[in-house]
User: Fold these one by one.
Assistant:
Number 1:
Amino acid sequence: MCTGSPSSNGTQPEEEGGAAEQQQQQQQQHHGQQEQPQTEQSLSLRTPTHAIVGAATAEEILEEYGSTLKLLECNSQVAELLTILRDKNTTRSDFKFYADRLIRLVIEESLNQLPYTDCDVETPTGAIYEGLKYRSGNCGVSIIRSGEAMEQGLRDCCRSIRIGKILVESDANTHEARVVYARFPDDIGSRQVLLMYPIMSTGNTVLQAVNVLREHGVPEKCIILSNLFCTPAAARTVVNAFPKLKILTSELHPVAPNHFGQKYFDGI
């Protein structure tokens, strides 16, 4: 699983790590656990060697967020993809290529969260193979605009899958999110839904999108949020609001790369 860790000083020599860690623990005991506003410049975005939520063990993440939040296993390949996508020097061509690779990994793991049922088939040799198939119909829903970057990854895995769209806008003054457009398959209420949204900073946009899906008859437990980057605050917001909704993300980090959509589509 991938997590990031804020650090007050990322340039200390390695041999001083023990003293620095002890000093940091003393400062945390003195100041308590109160969170302070942080910017990307003041954070060390190291992944995956340190944790953002306590020790970030599987047990602690389970206790903090519940069993519905799952993190993509953070092997060296995933760590490299996360690094490339956060690097300001990554070209637009490389950014899109590696973003598509990460999207594919997240989509495939999201598909693992769908319900399956037993299915026996006859092979060309006449043998019976005991396999699996999806329990019911599936569809994707992307939150416009950045969520559309994940559509091709879903189509590459599921041929001819139906994909709906939701457009959520935030008020410039109040920052309140509201849905201005939604289009779904007519029978979406009877389907399993993969809700696609790559960057989740506050969780407000996802809350509005899930509310619209529920209004169209989709049970909360039938929604899987496929996400690339999620902040701990956003994860808590969504989990608390919809405890039966499943979330699959590649990273929990306090600073989300909000440049994702612009760089992916516009190269900015």
Number 2:
Amino acid sequence: MSTTPNRNFWNIEASHIAKNTYNPIRSIVENIVTEPNPNKLMIALSIGDPTTFGNLKPAREVIEAVKESIESGLFNGYAPSTGYQKAREAVAEYSSNEFVKVDPKDVILCSGCSCALDLCITALARPGQNILIPRPGFSIYRTLAEGLGIKVKSYNLLPEYGWEVNLDDLEAQIDENTAAIIINNPSNPCGSVFSRGHLADLLEIAARYYVPIIADEIYEHMVFPGRSFHPLASISVDVPILSCSGLTKRFLVPGWRMGWIIIHDRQNILDKEIRKGLQCLSQRIIGSNTIVQGALPAILQNTPQKFYDDVIETLFEHSRLAYSHISKIPGLKPIMPDGAMYMMVYINLACFTEFKSDLEFVQCMLMEESVFCLPGQCFDYPSYIRLVITVPKDMLVEACLRIQDFCERHHCKTSQTINELGRIEIEY
């Protein structure tokens, strides 16, 4: 016999997941009340979207592949929740190399790499357990985990060593409740690229404590000359790895929302529960974009190497340009990236005594110079700012000049000393 609830007023509460979900970047950015200088064109070095300014465009072959997918009329309905077989085969072929052979059955297509990360964290960790994430690191790891009641513990990266992982600190964070380690390589926000030897060291720690790894490799292959990208799974023998990637960054189509998980499990450790768990979770949103799935084989097979090379050449040139200029600005110390789309810059706040934090520095620079960078607080790393290097070259040069002007005005040296420094000449 049913009982009628005794309600005489509206009382609709948000769920625990909704209440506990928090995105540090969105929260910090949306609470900045400072307005840009109306007399200067806004230059946003804060947006991790390579398409924002229109100077970086997807390859013609990518556009044609989507057109053909639409015109075929074959991809307007629902697909299997883990993706069409042909699309999964294309990802498996694209992700295979001389060290690892990917089977299509190990591929799960997702609505972007963030969705892939969400499924992996949800499948591996339970409320009360913890996952380990890098510091500095992309805030979405914390957002996804804490909303589910999963604790987050951070392990430190070392700026003086190209943002390599502090191995002792990583090991110290592992306890009996650690469900997974997230490794982000190449890195957002650092632009670092780990060597094969360093990745082997990380795997040795994970193997010693029997902890699986979630590999965020959305910037795979986006490395600068002299560096190489090593997929973590190509090195692992014992450690099960869930590798997350997609079209977003390398193919310059973040809005298309096409990502994937690849299950690397040579010892069949994940077969007991995790593989099925990922398949079940993929059914919550009934699969990813079918039009893009239909185009995926052609996108992954036909995009010319020259397209990839041109993008890398542009990002490398921009990173060298920014590094050269900013390294000459008193009070700032940039760390040259080895890949991805970002550069971290240290702010010596002792040289800017009117600012108590990186956030205050960023707010004032936005107000005076209309240049906006993300403060290190967004990545759990105070006293830094992150620059996005995908903006057009002329805008990047202008931004560097404005940052210089701002720092010279607010640097705590005497005005005479500042004048002696002179204006940094921008050559390009």
Number 3:
Amino acid sequence: MISLTDSQKIGIGLTGFGVFFLFFGMILFFDKALLAIGNILFVAGLAFVIGLERTFRFFFQKHKMKATSFFLGGVLVVLIGWPIVGVVLEVYGFFLLFRGFFPVIVGFIRRIPVLGSILNFSFLSGYVDKLGESNTMV
């Protein structure tokens, strides 16, 4: 079992609540307040889990500036009051930021008994294979 510090446990809770508020905000027709709370909690939780310095280094690497600007710009647009545009920008930025992790995630999901067989359906396997072949650095 991995031992976690108290700040990492708080960060996991904040990130979990952030994802919950983001999901709930989208379910309730892009409610501005819930999406704003979810964004703030998600980013704060991420900073608590991996630390402020590592969070800053992750987001502000030279080759990730486009992705960071889309993600943080989407957060800002949601906070200003345009939730649908902001969420679209955030999703695009999130995809660009974390695309280096997708091959690992796809490989892990393929080893799970039920989910792995779902990913092997003919209409999904082509998309999943393309997603799993990403050669970008993390």
